Prior knowledge:
- Helix content is 45%, strand content 18%.
- By secondary structure, the protein is of the alpha/beta class.
- It has a domain at 29-46 and 59-143: Rossmann fold, CATH 3.40.50.960.
- Strands 2-1-3-4 form a 4-stranded parallel sheet, with helices on both faces.
Amino acid sequence: MQPISQVEGSFVDVDGRYVIVVGRFNHHVVDSLVEGAVDSLTRHGVDEANIDIIHAPGAWELPLAIQRALRAVQPEAVIALGAVIRGGTPHFEHVAGECNSALSRLQLEFETPVANGVLTVNSIEQAIERAGTKAGNKGTEAAMAAMEMVSLMRRLEAPSSGDEQ
């Protein structure tokens, strides 16, 4: 019986261009996510000159900004960062749900990793916990996921027609 082959990404071959698209709304939380993402990328060898940061008004606007960046910049990966905090109206569900759905569609459409670091939380306290205190930094985690996916996508590339025979 043939062993099952395994393929996974690493954090070694992660060089390339990264775009971080940031929702400014709740910037007091989101700024920490950006710092975590940039720190993670540079610690793993991504040159700061290859990191673009694009600011959108909020999580609702992230997908359109990401779509345009995917077309114009053609990065190795995009990291979406923002914070949607539940309030007293159904606005939270609409913004969070549509943002998440659109991010998923974009990565499939462009075959480019779009790491989701958009916090969807019930309170400002939960947001602060996920931006670098008790619950870690979700910006860091999103950057790590983006790099791992870049590496994995490279390993899963089909051989070019010149390699076949």
